[in-house]
Amino acid sequence: MKKSIAEQTHIAIRLGIVVAVVAFCATAFADAPAAVDGNGSIVTLPDPPEAISALIQSGNVRFEFYDPKVVVRSFDGETEFEFRYEYKSRSAWKRKEVDGKPGIEVGIQYEEVKLAQSHRILLPDSLIGDGVFKRQLTLHEFDHVRISSDPRWGPLLQTMLKSRNSVMTKAFDEDEDEIKGRGTPQELNRISNQMVKEASDAVFNELIELVRIRYRELDRVSRYGLETMSKEDRQRIVEAAPKAEVAEKAE
To answer: Do the beta carbons of residue 106 and residue 192 sit within 8 Å?
Structure first.
């Protein structure tokens, strides 16, 4: 059956990328991982323990070392995480009155959501050596990696997208030259695409903030790696399943 112009359906495939370069720092008290020094020269590191090796692989971790005599830093260690997401969606729009004005209603179905990540751990070059993966500072930075490389972030993002963005509406400004109160099908397609993108990116940014909250809590409780956390705190901050409610409670 042929759809009316007011109920056109289209498939949208978009790639959304947000780089979360977060300076969560700490103070120091399989294959060899990728590592460079402050000059960009390759640094050879020992084979890490199995658990850390798994984190390096799953979190796509690279190391950078700096000379504290050359680079003055407030904290000795730093972990940066970068999330990228890709989604495939099917959306349908129709004209609808919104708040007494001509508008549009958009329904979205997310068919595929993928989340990828990478990490950079920055450490002083004094840690280079056979014991680098036993140092308290290094282990603290890997607690950050444990948080953001948790494979459950991907399914959570998909759940958040589906629950928040299933139906959206927008009222048109009658004075807008481009819309003129109603808009052509081509204009409505463009508006629909923009609504889907903005709504999807907003949810993705919310997910990034969930990770930031965990990072900040880890640094607060451990005093940036100076203190050993209790089993309960470790389970709550590092090991617990990601939940969207965390952001709501933190507001």
So the answer is: yes
